[in-house]
Amino acid sequence: MHAAVFYSPNNISLEERDHKFSSGDNQRRGVLLRMNACAVCGYDVNVYRNGHIKVRAPVVLGHEICGELAESTSFSIAHSYPDGDVYKLDLVEGTRVVLSPVVPCMNCMYCDSGQYNLCSNLGEIGSSIDGGFAEFVRIPNNTLGIGGLIPLPDCLTNEESTLIEPLACCLNGFKRINSLVNDRLEDKTFVILGDGPIGLIHLQLAKYLYGAKVIVVGRVGHRLQAARNMGADFVLELEENKDTLPTSAIKEVLDLTDGKGTSVSIIATPNPDALEIAAGIASKNSIINIFAGMPRHLSFQLDPNWVHYNQIALIGSFSATPKLIHESITLAAKKRGISLSSIITHRCKLDEIYKALEITEEFLGLRVVINSF
Ligand SMILES: [Zn+2]
Ligand SMILES: [Zn+2]
Fold it and tell me: Measuring CA to CA, which residue among 330, 313, 339, 323 is closest to residue 100?
């Protein structure tokens, strides 16, 4: 099979491999998926340029995956999916599916409670084991066992289905926010820090789930225009390399909110300035979700009294469970409020992987999808 293999920073090689090739025990088992489409995530670019502590090279990257079964399979789902019952799923060859890239250990307290994304010994397809920038990907038994292959309805295309996984991750963040506000937000002003695909999915969810007033803060003109088209009430374009950047952004958001600040801030950018901005614009009772991964060894100073006296909730959210992927499919299939196709701007062949990574890195569009292998 054709595969793009990551070896080390700035070193991805296009190779022919045996599709039964396996670099670890986990990959010898499970079921084989033929790739239909795989989106390029900012994470893939970060790994390509800098490597990552989670990545065990050589490995095929790519975790936003839509494929079809290359062989029939039957598996029992281990825990709480999708409605609390344990049941068996039979999938035949050719079934179109999306993938949860989570490979849980099934032997820790988080796996015991169905929180597989928090597994203490988490493996990830496209990170620690081979992912979707290849003609085939092998899905390990532990992923099958949590219902990590989810069949797709016909109304979702292969391309838009690649964004079901990121949508599920964003939904995970919203579930956590919701658990703090019990559906009641005093003031529905959301600020999304980051104008990339993830920021724009958050924008769509904030509009759809809360009818929120949404301010999107970013640096890229065409992305902020896309945010406007998707219903952002305000967009704020930050100037590159400006010393006073967090301070001026804070002032502008406070001006836009009559000095009140925002009830929810979502950090959807790895730029650490976003932390300072989020703290500066928080109203009392505000929730700040650190959704994006940040550069390693970054420290951030926080005044505990500010958290205490203002009842600030600083939360994080990471990845998603198969249950959330299931919910995301239902949400996207309604074709109301959430438009995944509007996030996809470029299509590339697997042979054009460098171009695809470059388009992503240079913010030339929104999501790039590899759709031909
Ligand atoms: Zn991703
Ligand atoms: Zn575990």
Answer: 323
Ligand closest in space to the Cα of 116: 2
Q: What is the dihedral of CA 199, 204, 206, 211, to 10 degrees?
A: 150
Q: Find the ligand nearest to 118 CA.
A: 2
- Centre of ligand 1 to C-alpha 241, Å, is 27
State the ligand closest to the CA atom of 79: 2
pLDDT tens-place values along the chain, 373 residues long:
999 999 999 999 999 988 765 545 444 578 999 999 999 999 999 999 999 999 989 999 999 999 999 988 888 886 655 455 667 888 899 999 999 999 999 999 999 888 999 999 999 999 999 999 999 999 999 999 999 999 999 999 999 999 999 999 999 999 999 999 865 677 889 999 999 999 999 999 999 999 999 999 999 999 999 999 999 999 999 887 665 678 889 999 999 999 999 999 999 999 999 999 999 999 999 999 999 998 887 888 889 999 999 999 999 999 999 999 999 999 999 999 999 999 999 999 999 999 999 999 999 999 999 999 9
Name the closest ligand to CA 122. 2
pTM above 0.90, yes or no: yes
Ligand minimally distant from the alpha carbon of residue 168: 1
The Cα–Cα gap between 115 and 137 comes to 24
Determine what percent of the chain falls in helix, strand and coil, rounding each to the nearest 5.
35, 30, 40
Q: What's the CA-to-centroid distance between 63 and ligand 1, angstroms?
A: 6
Distance 145 CA to ligand 2 centre (A): 13
Distance (Å, rounded) from C-alpha 271 to C-alpha 226?
Answer: 20
CA of 102 to the centre of ligand 2 (A): 10
